[in-house]
Design goal:
With 110 residues, this protein is mainly alpha-helical. Helix 2 crosses helix 4. The longest helix has 23 residues. The protein starts with a helix and ends with a helix.
């Protein structure tokens, strides 16, 4: 019954609501990449707190980044996720990340 209600609710979402959710997901994914590429110590718990999501969602985002070719790893010494030094994702620049973040904050996620 719970799965049926969820499926019905998803079908009832408008295209605009779907786009807002997709934009928010993409913004969080790009923000995750930005965070683990920086100097901070980002483990799953810290990322989840920063991104206001569950640790499971953080793990899903990391899998998605792997599928996109991002060479991230967990640094046991620092106890943090990192991106291989020197890696640059050609299409991602700070301005793009900022634009995506503003997109997700301009509308309420549904």
């Amino acid at each position: 019954a719970k799965n049926e209600n969820e499926a019905k609710r998803i079908r009832e979402r408008s295209d605009a609501e779907r786009r807002v959710r997709q934009c928010a997901r993409l913004a969080n994914l790009m923000r995750t990449l930005h965070l683990i590429s920086g100097r901070g110590r980002w483990d799953a718990k810290a990322l989840a707190e920063e991104l206001e999501c569950s640790q499971r969602t953080v793990h899903r985002m990391l899998v998605t980044l792997s599928m996109a070719g991002v060479p991230w790893y967990f640094d046991e010494k620092l106890r943090a996720y990192r991106v291989r030094e020197g890696f640059r994702f050609p299409l991602v620049e700070q301005a793009v990340v900022e634009k995506l973040e503003s997109c997700s904050t301009e509308s309420d996620p549904v």
